[in-house]
């Protein structure tokens, strides 16, 4: 029988070192995927692209590989060494990002982004599973909240340093430097973005593979065949189906805002890319990190008040909040007001991420956590990474026919996604209460 929460052993140095390295890896992965969002102008000029073709680099190129390899990495995380999977994947995506900077054609860049997406698919299933086995149950949301700072740290740093590097590189004379001397500023940004991952690979060699532990909510089924995994999904489809639909809809906001908000500020208010990169990047870094750290604290407060389902209640509340925030974006009339709305969105869509991840791990048998996380990655990738940027671009190009109205496209896309998210998360919340009642 599992020890009561207050008698569970405290995590040691190895667990916190694991979280530190995984957070750095998650940060690097988002630098690698988000830095492209600041390079919209240079890439459109370099390859003669419209918003729709550019969005394929943001979405389809990355996401198709991410989706293709997620089930493979999910199953490997359930059956093999999660540490080994992470070392392999981090090394591969770091090299892929640098290769983006060596691209000479649109399709070379497309394939490099495909490689980055495929290798980054290893991170979520392996990291979520290894985190859940490294911390006592009461501390899993806190551990996830630190890990989940990665997207906001990475997204913010990509904008801040990507913008500064892009501006600085325009004035550098590197003609005497082999290989780099012939590169354009946008290529140098890609090359630099891939380098930190190689240091993280070296740090991963000092991570220990923890012993696998059973979940207190879900029955421990030991080694599971795929037929057993499918049986659990079917038996608890009320939770899994609505959870996946609700969170993937909410994640549309998480990906659409960072993908297009810099462009909104640049096009609508004639702001400089470097200014937007520093200001919006800093706000995403701070508010996103605060949001993801605040979530577990709010959940604990609600649990003390008797709301044991708080890990799923707060994501539902966040979805409702994002409906209002997304609508507000369409009514902004100044750079400052648009930046304020984007800042509020960053806090709200980041707040439930660690909570939802924790709920999924706690509700799932240990030996199918990897595949459950991979399914999550799959549905989130299709809607968030794949569809979100392109939907915004299609509305801008083919409905409004005016690139300055990209803000309206972003507002409509995110408001509709948040509405769907609220519907499905409410249904998932009811099923999660039943799982808790029968644990």
Automatic annotation (TrEMBL):
The chain crosses the membrane at residues 12-31, 54-73, 85-104, 110-131, 143-166, 186-207, 239-260, 280-299, 311-332, 338-362, 374-395, 410-429. InterPro entries: MFS, MFS_dom, MFS_spinster-like, MFS_trans_sf. Keywords: Membrane, Transmembrane, Transmembrane helix, Transport. One of its GO terms (cellular component) is membrane. It holds the Pfam family MFS_1. It comes from the Bacteria. Its main location: membrane. The keyword Transmembrane applies. The keyword Transmembrane helix applies. It is a multi-pass membrane protein. GO terms for molecular function: transmembrane transporter activity. Residues 18-433 form the Major facilitator superfamily (MFS) profile domain. It is found in: Membrane. PANTHER family: PROTEIN SPINSTER (PTHR23505:SF79), SPINSTER (PTHR23505). This is MFS transporter. It comes from Sphingobium phenoxybenzoativorans.
